[in-house]
Write a structure and sequence with these properties.
- The protein is α/β, with parallel strands linked by helices.
- Helices cover 42% and strands 17% of the residues.
- The protein has 26 helices and 20 strands.
- The protein has a six-stranded parallel sheet with strand order 8-11-12-13-14-15. A five-stranded parallel sheet has the order 2-1-3-4-5, with helices on both faces.
- Strand 11 (250-253), helix 8 (264-278) and strand 12 (283-287) form a beta-alpha-beta unit.
- It starts with a strand and ends in an 11-residue tail after the last strand.
Length: 687
């Protein structure tokens, strides 16, 4: 028999903008492991882009089609499998990945609803997939492969019998010594993906010690942490740095708890050495660990200025954490990480999930308040996704918490194939529970927008710090902006009303309704134009920055002034002068940061307080009054311009694209910087 031909898919959409940027390292591991086992007996091709695989399937269909299955590419994977099965009825369709139910009845339902799927490889895919390949190679001809493989259960795999029952022996097999898997980078399997659009991803360990029920990695079967060797990791980082195009800034780390394990210190050293030697990576994106505060902070300090940390809090309500089996995570440690990291100059983001079991509107507000007090730079309030592969998405849990759901398009995940068929990825989201109403859900969505725009980057850091100096809670600013918006401009009021309506209109009763609706050319055009199917908070963030930045800044400043005015005893003439200086500073930081003419429109302000120095210290602004008023011009550097322009080239100038540009920009890249045109002298009398 000729070499076995295998296509492995980890697909992303790029219809309007790139949807997922990560290298397909997952299928790279599977391919590298299989190639080491079977050498010249197999031919493996890896695919990331839909057009490429659709073309190759029609030109030369393989014997085995392997599809990585995530919430964001499940439907396109099924469609490619359908196309393949018609072209090669004797071929095998193998799915793998976390988007697979955990309970047996739901797994049986998955196979019934997806008859094109022959085999599922749950959890880690290397061993199960090679067992499939081994069986395939035992066939006498290509036509016999299907019958040979499906004739009996396969270790590490799940199949379904003709009577609808699952077939398996050992359904999950994990590799403990991960270096048994050859490196997809060092073997050259990833070379084709250094295209200037995708971002390299590395993995240093697998597994998660936590048990969160809303997460696909919360299962007991993946609690054991297995690691790659430090020599392997170092070699991969060097290889990537040597091959990454100039326009590639990011390095992604797929670890679920980066920074909390002892070996992570050495990984940070490797990255720091690479940055010094090659200038890469400029940005490191990862999810930080939930415990081991001191170790995490120490590791972050090594990558100061390049790492973007994500502190996944989800909730600060003890009863909720217990409900979702997350109570083994120290909330005190999480809250303590924020201020410590802030001192290093590293931007820190935090995630909150609205609508978790037992969460109320009031308790969600308290979580937001706690995270604001932790001095986090960016706060993301997410809608609860009902993920296949998570414990929460089983019938008994849904019933226990009375979780009501709707369906919506996953942002930017849609395409029209050459056949004219439109494929849309769809997610099921929780919109109410026995403790949270649908009306509460909508109001929390608006809070998510206000928090994201106002707490992203350092543009409003001066006013936030000034409020804290006057003992005014920053949470009060956020709350008043969200729920007491009568003093907002008409543009902002209209924006809020439009956002609320969009948050309701994006929800559907069933996936079938969505699929049917967007087969219509007129409706599909709305997707292309960005009128629907967006990540609304990200999209409207782009709208604010490109169209309403001035209005939003004035709304922040007016709300802050009203809070100061409520404490009339402190709002004297000197305080008002300081407030005016800070207000002008904030306006200048955010002036025209995304316009095509942004390098030519540099605002100039009077500089009568050394705000730049004040922001770095711990003493009050009145200690930084200048003896002589200077001038400050606010500019973007060439490096800032180029880095933002590279993202715009990938994601586009639409409101949706600009929203993603903001999301993927490091705080220091987006906003202007003050340049003083003469020496400044602090007024000694004010010290």
């Amino acid at each position: 028999m000729n070499p076995l031909k295998i296509y492995l898919l980890d697909l992303t959409y790029n219809t309007t903008t790139l949807s997922t940027e990560a290298f397909p390292i997952n299928i790279g591991y599977v391919a590298a492991y299989a190639k080491e086992q079977f050498g010249q007996n197999i031919e493996i091709s890896l695919f990331k882009y839909i057009d490429d695989v659709e073309c190759e399937l029609k030109r030369s269909p393989p014997d085995i089609l392997g599809v990585s299955n995530y919430a964001w590419n499940y439907r396109i994977g099924c469609e490619m499998a359908n196309i393949f099965s018609k072209l090669n009825p004797n071929g095998l369709v193998v799915f793998g990945g976390p988007n697979f139910p955990v309970d047996l009845p739901s797994q049986e339902r998955f196979f019934r609803e997806n008859p094109v799927v022959d085999i599922y490889v749950p959890t880690e895919g290397e061993v199960g997939f090679t067992n499939i390949v081994q069986k395939s190679l035992e066939a006498k001809s290509h036509k016999e492969i299907r019958n040979k493989v499906l004739s009996q259960p396969i270790d590490g795999c799940i199949t379904i019998s003709s009577d609808g029952k699952l077939n398996y022996t050992i359904p999950e097999i994990r590799i403990k010594k991960l270096d048994e898997i050859p490196s997809p980078y060092l073997t050259g399997l990833m070379d084709k993906f250094f295209d200037g659009k995708l971002s390299p991803m590395i993995q240093t360990n697998r597994g998660c010690p936590f048990h969160c029920t809303f997460c696909t990695d919360g299962r007991d079967s993946v609690n054991q942490i297995n690691s790659f060797s430090l020599d392997r990791i170092s070699a991969e980082i060097n290889y990537i740095a040597n091959n990454a195009p100039l326009e590639t800034d990011n390095l992604l780390i797929s670890d679920l708890n980066f920074g909390m394990f002892p070996k992570d210190s050495a990984v940070c050293d490797f990255i720091d050495e690479s940055k010094k030697k090659f200038g890469y990576p400029k940005i490191v994106k990862c999810t930080t660990g939930k415990n081991q505060k001191k170790r995490i902070i120490s590791n972050i300090e090594k990558l100061r200025g390049s790492i973007k940390m994500d502190m996944a809090v989800q909730s600060m309500t003890p009863e909720v954490l217990k409900n979702v089996r997350r109570d083994n995570i120290s909330t005190d440690h999480l809250l303590a990480i924020g201020p410590a990291i802030k001192k290093t100059g590293v931007p820190l983001s935090s995630d909150i999930i609205a609508g978790l079991p037992g969460e109320t509107f009031e308790s969600t507000l308290q979580t937001v308040k706690d995270i604001i007090h932790a001095d986090v730079d960016e706060i993301f309030i997410w809608t609860l996704m009902m993920l296949d592969g998570s414990e929460l998405n089983v019938p008994k849990e849904r019933e226990k918490w009375n979780i009501k759901t709707k369906y919506r398009i996953i942002p930017r995940d849609f395409a029209k194939l050459s056949s004219g068929k439109v494929i849309t990825e769809i997610e099921e989201v929780g919109v109410s529970t026995n403790t949270l109403s649908f009306e509460d859900y909508v109001e929390l969505r608006l809070l998510a927008l206000v928090v994201k725009v106002t707490k992203t980057g350092f543009i409003y850091d001066p006013i936030l710090k000034f409020l804290k100096e006057q003992n005014i809670d920053i949470y009060d600013l956020i709350y008043n902006m969200t729920y007491r918006s009568n003093h907002a401009s008409e543009n902002i009021k209209k924006l809020f009303n439009t956002f609320r309506k969009a948050s309701i209109d994006e929800l559907w009763d069933s996936p079938e309704e969505i699929e049917k609706n967007y087969q219509n050319d007129i409706e599909y055009e709305k997707l292309l134009n960005g009128d629907v199917g967006q990540n609304l908070t990200q999209y409207y963030h782009g709208v604010v920055l490109s169209k309403n930045m001035s209005d939003w800044t004035e709304y922040v400043l007016n709300t802050a002034k009203n809070l100061l005015m409520e404490k009339q005893e402190i709002f004297n003439d000197e305080l008002e002068k300081q407030f005016i200086a800070i207000s002008n500073y904030c306006r200048a930081l955010g002036h025209n940061v995304l316009g095509k003419d942004r390098m030519q429109t540099n605002p100039e302000i009077d500089y009568n307080y050394d705000i730049k120095k004040w922001l770095k210290g711990d003493t009050a602004l009145n200690n930084f009054k200048l003896k002589k008023v200077s001038k400050a011009v606010f500019e973007l550097t060439v490096d800032q311009f180029n880095r933002v322009e590279a993202l715009i080239k990938i994601y586009g100038y639409s409101d949706s694209g600009l929203g993603k540009v903001c999301n993927y920009s490091v705080n220091t890249v987006l906003w202007r910087k003050p340049v003083l045109n003469e020496e400044i002298i602090v007024d000694i009398k004010s010290l």
